[in-house]
Amino acid sequence: MARKNPRTKAAAPATTPERRVQVTGIVVYLQYPDGTTRTVTYDPRRVEALFWTRRAVTEILGSYYESRDISMTREHCTHCFGPTRTRAIMGNRSEVRITSDLLERLWDAPDDQGCCIGILSKQDNSSPGP
């Protein structure tokens, strides 16, 4: 009688992959205080999440960054949020650690026209984006 080898595992049953609906594009309609509108399109291959309330930005997105040591460079901040907001949240620093406090200050920092951000995206590279 042959002994079974206890180290040999049974083959896993074959399963079919889940059929899932794919998000292929995200469109957001923005309205500014002066009544003008703008349409912004996000690529779901680059953007993992969108945040459009203070609570979502500070509690959900902020919590994500609080548990990680991720910094944002002045160049990236200026590219995403413009020079006025960059000066408001970074001062003269060349790099800042992303925290819920920094995100709250960014959320409340007006641009050159006096408008505050209405939406933030969480990009797949862990950096917040416009």
Would you kindly provide a written description of the structure presented here, covering whatever features stand out?
It is a single chain. By secondary structure, the protein is an alpha+beta fold. 30% of the residues lie in helices and 22% in strands. The chain has helices spanning 54-66, 74-90, 100-108, and strands spanning 26-31, 37-42, 47-51, 71-73, 95-97, 120-123, 128-129. The strands form 3 sheets. The protein has a 3-stranded antiparallel β-sheet with strand order 3-6-7. A two-stranded antiparallel ribbon has the order 1-2. A two-stranded antiparallel sheet has the order 4-5. A hairpin with a 5-residue loop joins β1 (26-31) and β2. α1 (54-66) packs antiparallel against α3. The chain starts with 25 loop residues before the first strand and ends with a strand. 15% of the residues are buried.
Ranges with pLDDT <50 over ≥5 residues? none
The profile of the biggest β sheet is: 3 strands, antiparallel
Q: Output the structural class.
A: alpha+beta
Shape: globular
**Cα-to-Cα separation, first versus last residue:** 69 Å
The portion of residues assigned to helices is 25-40%
- Beta-strand segment tally: 7
Placed side by side, the strands forming the largest sheet appear as 3-6-7
User: Strand portion, in percent?
Assistant: 15-25%
Give average pLDDT, whole number.
88
